Amino acid sequence: MKGMIFAAGLGTRLAPLTDTCPKALIPVGDKPMLRRVIERMREAGVADIVVNVHHHADMIKRYLRENDFGVSVRVSDESEALLDTGGGVVKAMDMLAGDEPIMLYNADIYTTFPIGEMLSSYESSGADVVLLVGERDTSRYLLMDEDGYMRGWKNVSTGEVRSPEGVEVPEGCVPRAFGGVHIISPKVLDVLKEYKPEGKFSITPFYIDMCDRLKIRGYTPASGYSWIDIGKPETLAKAREIAKMHDAEMGGRE
Questions:
Q1: Cα–Cα distance between 248 and 173 in angstroms, integer?
Q2: pTM of the predicted model, to two decimals?
Q3: What are the helix (H) ranges across 104-202?
Q4: Residues in Cβ contact with 142 at an 8 Å cutoff, skipping those fewer than 6 apart
């Protein structure tokens, strides 16, 4: 399996920490978030990883060059222009192409859900895309039908609802928060490039516009787990606290 880690973000909410360090290299527990994500992906069987870079790109390149992660790690350089998630995947498409599924993972998400369980869900579902989703509070939700498939999107702050052009969101859909981890079929790359061949764009509007054409399914872990976006000082502090406890617990099992 291949994978891509989104590590190009500016991390403005974490300034001044991110004035001198990219968010992906900020330590959580005893290791940078980027290492944590690479190790999580490796556990799931990802053997070939692409990391996109922009903010403090040279620092991330050096870190990847100077460390052995037990898997192949390559860089997609967005130094000239930050491309967001969708544009980042399109730029890295040649490195991601092949017959294997692709795991996409935000470098600023600290989470402990069983990543192998998500892969099993993808393999057994026959879906084109499987998204980590949950009942977490947020302002923007994916709308999932009774079978767990995405049918649209809603911004609860503004009341805006979006779905594929000409398709209404079915009644009875439930809102679920997206968790920043996805597994996509290799065929999705062709659809993504057809959707927008180049430039900056988020992958979420792509999912919204294509959820009638692609089978986009949500995955919710069966048991409890931690999930924290480390993008703010208070959430970074919380992630560090939980990571310390989790690492100690896991170390005691080895």
A1: 40
A2: 0.95
A3: 115-125, 187-195
A4: 131, 133, 150, 152, 153, 175, 176, 177, 178, 207, 218
> From CA 33, how far away is CA 26, in angstroms rounded?
6
Tokens of 53: 């870079």
Q: How far apart are CA 254 and CA 249, in angstroms?
A: 9
Taken as a whole, the chain contains a residue count of 254
pLDDT in tens, the chain (254 residues): 999 999 999 999 999 999 999 999 999 999 999 999 999 999 999 999 999 999 999 999 999 999 999 999 999 999 999 999 999 999 999 999 999 999 999 999 999 999 999 999 999 999 999 999 999 999 999 999 999 999 999 999 999 999 999 999 999 999 999 999 999 999 999 999 999 999 999 999 999 999 999 999 999 999 999 999 999 999 999 999 999 998 888 764 54
Q: Which two tokens stand for residue 157?
A: 């702050």
DSSP annotation of 12: G
Tokens 């039908």 belong to 145
150-155 vs 174-184, strand pairing mode: unpaired
Burial class (CB in 10 A: 0-12, 13-18, 19+), 138: middle
